[in-house]
Amino acid sequence: MLPETGYMSLLKAAATDRPEYPLHRFNALAELTRDEVRDLQALGEPPVRCRRGETIRTEGQPADGIHLLYEGWVSSSVVLRSGKRLIQKLHLPGDMLGTPSMVLPAAADTLTAVTGATTSFVPNATLQELFARRPRIAAMLFMAAQLERLTLMDALASTGRASATESMARFLLDLHHRLGMLGAVEQDCFDLPATQEMVGDLLGLTPVHVNRTLRGMVKQGLIEMKGRKVRLVDLAALRSLSPLPVRKPLFEPSWLPAPSANGSKAV
Amino acid sequence: MLPETGYMSLLKAAATDRPEYPLHRFNALAELTRDEVRDLQALGEPPVRCRRGETIRTEGQPADGIHLLYEGWVSSSVVLRSGKRLIQKLHLPGDMLGTPSMVLPAAADTLTAVTGATTSFVPNATLQELFARRPRIAAMLFMAAQLERLTLMDALASTGRASATESMARFLLDLHHRLGMLGAVEQDCFDLPATQEMVGDLLGLTPVHVNRTLRGMVKQGLIEMKGRKVRLVDLAALRSLSPLPVRKPLFEPSWLPAPSANGSKAV
DNA sequence: CGGACTGTTGAAATATATCAATATTTGTGG
DNA sequence: CCACAAATATTGATATATTTCAACAGTCCG
Q1: Is the per-residue pLDDT at A53 higher than 90?
Q2: pLDDT grade, residue A16 (50/70/90)?
């Protein structure tokens, strides 16, 4: 019972000193009301901490909810029949993990902590309730799903059709952009906790070739690397290498429903 | 003004003799009430017919709505910076086209009719109203988006990481499955109106290599081809070639909201 | 301190792209 | 219905990016 006690104490600590769920993804879509913020912050169960390499959820397991990522990096991966692993996405804080599996009896992907990570579980029933009570948040979740589709479409465009260097450029620019929104980029320099093997599984390349590609880009003066820090030296050149430009989603789409009136009091 | 008259008469004809929008995608998720069916059938503007090769909507154009596909095949494509074209998906009847662009100021993809096709436009404002009025349909649309994400994830798994033959097997099995739901498959034989170049743009292969791959599969006895008809001769072998199994979505997920009570009268 | 990951580099093998030429099909106007 | 042009399919020879295999050097972490 020893592990249990550690887990319980962690839960207790989280309940009293709960970290904040980053809402920048929602804020990019619309200005949230105070009630909406409160609802979203209270959505999940108490956040749980897991260590690097730990599995949060395994492909094929029954899945009856999603996970909110509070802190850290988490990968979403699938194993192909050939035995190869495919990483579909590297999730950053603020992402909602595992939503595609909501329509399946079992989880479609495996969620693994790339760094230490804090996540919070949200049962499907809770989401159902939110959908019925807050049509505006429902619409935003729908839009978030469409944004994820766009991301996947762009990934599809870069993988297979583009050269290794082009794919890599896109990957680095995407991270640069997403980490930038979290304030984790300084002078175009950021932490890349993924191993080269992971990057390979993400881009559809051999780890060996990932290495050669990165070294080549360093030699060309496109990037600098030191340990697990990367600096994008020549952003312009990287952008012109990338098969697609980074997308700018629309701010406050006109067709969002009005905020619901039912909150703690007025709105 | 000549084209206008043709267009107008077509609209009028459609208004009186409107074709049905295939709802099998929704029916796979939940049993629709009569009111829901009525709402969905009345959702779009009068359907419009377009001919093979015609463009329904171009990438970069302002997009303030989506398209329901009533009949025919439509491709969704993007042009990369390199000039290469990427086809993201071949849409079949019942699909909703262009939803990812709802979160963007301009369309993310170009919609082109692969065969003659009938589509109906749905302004974003109409969808907004539906979201607010029918939370259950909103939830189903959300789930449909998640299903599309799964499809894209699988496509990502097959493109770039799998061999040409494996990708092709998956592509053919996917069509076999989707066309089957529409009743367009007889004895594992179906029409494939896409050119080999299109298939190449879809799988990330050269048209030349698409040809070699198909011919190879014929020689191996996996498939048969005659004109633009394909027959999947050895389904078992194709399935074991495919990098991922075809997914079976969950029927009637328990967390769907209850149908709204407001029907033909009150709102 | 040592063992296990992780990164780096080289040489050979291979799947796919590219270039090019010819056959076949499809669509269109007479 | 035919004839003709354009689009599409087919096949061969060669080029190339990436993989695979293999060996070794760092680096992390208990």
Answers
A1: yes
A2: low
- For residues B118 and B148, give the distance between their C-alpha atoms in angstroms, rounded to a whole number: 21
Average pLDDT over residues A76-97: 94
| CB-CB contact of B257 with A128 (8 Å) | yes
Selected for mutation to probe chain B from A99, A137, A156, A262 (highest B CB count within 10 Å) is: A156
Which residue pairs from B87-91 have beta carbons closer than 8 angstroms and sit at least 24 positions apart in sequence? B87/B198, B87/B201, B87/B202, B88/A153, B88/A156, B88/A157, B88/B152, B88/B202, B89/B151, B89/B155, B89/B202, B90/B114, B90/B175, B90/B194, B90/B198, B90/B202
Compare CB distances from B99 to A146, A204, A255 and report the shortest one's residue: A146
Judged by CB atoms closer than 8 Å, whether chains meet at A150 and B108 is answered as yes
Strand C closer than 7 A to residue B227 Cβ: yes
| Partners of B71 in the β-ladder | B118
Residues of B in contact with A142 (CB under 8 A): 131, 138, 141-142, 145
In a mutagenesis test of the A interface, which of B64, B85, B152 is the best target, namely the one with the most A β-carbons within 10 Å? B152
Q: Does B128 touch chain A (CB under 8 A)?
A: yes
Q: Which pLDDT band holds residue A6 (cuts at 50, 70, 90)?
A: very low
* Tens digits of residue pLDDT in B175-211: 999 999 999 999 999 999 999 999 999 999 999 999 9
Query: Which tokens in the block code for residue B178?
Result: 């989707």
Largest CA distance in chain A: 61
Give Cα separations from A251 to A25, A40, A260, B52 (angstroms): 11, 20, 20, 36
Q: Closest CA to D9 C1' — which residue?
A: B211
